[in-house]
Write a structure and sequence with these properties.
Number of helices: 5
CATH superfamily: monomeric porin ompg
Distance between the termini: 34 Å
Strand order of the largest sheet: 1-2-3-4-5-6-7-8-10-11-12-13
CATH class: Mainly Beta
Number of domains: 1
Low-confidence stretches: none
Order of helices and strands: HHEEEEEEEEEEHHEEHE
Strand content: over 45%
Shape: globular
CATH topology: Porin
Length: 258
């Protein structure tokens, strides 16, 4: 149960990362604020793993945007360089990807080894223009859990009207063979124990789309709702561990800026 709650926490904090970014952009010229966002949110998400049900929970949320440091959902870091248009960061992120055999209803999946979450360290670049925001992150496993490398690139275009912001995002996520093998591979010993086929995936690309709505309720309070769809690459979706070739998450909540 504890692991399921942690996975849901990860899902909602990832989804509101763009909310924190837009909130910071709108509040950057407000001198009487410290740069914090505090609130509560809830989420429901699907799993790609065979026999694993939907997960859901509610939790507190925290974001911070300063001149040198930031915290956006599960990612925090240091601004190495930052001006009106460009942002170059060194970043540490919690990686919520995990699998616990006891979660699955499949008797074969219950005989597999657990896969654990980790932390990723890397570099992040953001370009802010009138035509939207481009973001790119390159990171590697910091704890030696999956020994993998991940690269993510995205484009967002916040549409602002009255007291609302609508933020559509399109992106792509690349993961190397070490990452995919740890989370989706089936070793020979696991295959023998479970009856699943031995599988060792290669690197793959996974496109995704996200839509976030933020509504300002007052000078300090705002509400948000967000949804994300991630479409797994063929190397991952062909794994005998995987039942669904896409993952979906929905979240919502309230934030207080101060």
């Amino acid at each position: 149960m504890r692991q399921k709650v942690l996975s849901c926490i990860a899902a909602v904090t990832i989804l509101i990362g763009s909310v924190f970014a837009v909130q910071a952009e709108e509040n950057k010229n407000t001198d009487n604020r410290w740069g914090f966002d505090l609130g509560i949110g809830g989420t429901v998400s699907t799993s790609e793993y065979r026999g694993v049900e939907r997960l859901g929970t509610a939790l507190p949320l925290l974001g911070y945007e300063g001149d040198r440091l930031y915290l956006r959902g599960l990612s925090g870091g240091v601004h190495v360089f930052k001006n009106e248009n460009h942002e170059f960061n060194v970043q540490l992120s919690y990686l919520p990807q995990n699998f616990f055999a006891s979660w699955s209803d499949s008797s074969a999946m219950k005989k597999l080894d657990d896969r654990y979450a980790s932390a990723m360290v890397g570099i992040n670049y953001r370009l802010h223009t009138d035509l939207g925001m481009l973001a790119a992150t390159l990171s590697t496993d910091a704890l030696g859990v999956n020994n993998g490398v991940m690269a993510v690139a995205s484009y967002s275009y916040p549409v602002r009207f009255a007291n609302m912001s609508l933020i559509p995002t399109l992106g792509v996520q690349w993961t190397d063979e070490n990452y995919n093998d740890y989370y989706y591979g089936v070793s020979k010993s696991e295959a023998q124990a479970s009856g699943l086929s031995h599988y060792s995936p290669q690197a793959t690309l996974a496109p995704y789309g996200e839509l976030t709505l933020r509504v300002g309720l007052s000078e300090s309070w705002s509400a948000f709702a967000s949804g994300k769809a991630l479409f797994l690459g063929e190397e991952v979706s062909n794994s005998p561990m995987v039942e669904h070739s896409s993952k979906y998450s929905l979240s919502g909540g309230f934030l207080y800026a101060f």
